[in-house]
Amino acid sequence: MIEQAAFFGHALRPLGRRSGGLAKIIVLSVLLVASLNATAATFTVTNGNYAGPGSLRQAVFDANINPSKDTIVIDSSVTTIKPIVLKAGAGGWDPIQIFESVDIIGPGGPPFNRVTVDDMQSYFSRNGRDLPGWTRCDAPGSLPIVGSDIVFEVGQQGQDNSAIEVLFQGFRVTRTGGLV
Fold it and tell me: What's the domain range around 56?
């Protein structure tokens, strides 16, 4: 049994009966806090749908509600993801919103094995010109033209979002106004 101890040159008092209860409370508090820390989760994207089970949007939603940095893995069977559509009602675009740190990993491998994020943005032509691989929508000269904006929105407006880290790996982005 230790009768006398020192901490950085200062003598420590022996622990009495009362301090045993305090020590137990401290240990239990530390264990409780440790158990509350969520563990990182992995979510798998199994289809290229706009939303719903197995979609990228659902995986990001699931990662947002888990407080630790998660990983979203896109299954190698998914070749194209179409993440953006017009919002119903009020109009506008509906980017995938990321509020927590996350790694979003495509199938990997050489460039030929990457998933394509294609928001199917149409281009508008006032002169009937075609762009290969794009959908043309002829528009009269007076019609305002608005692109589809961005695929992902990271953080919340008016908040400090500096702690949110997002890694995108294994993507090819086509026909969009911007990725993030």
Answer: 42-174
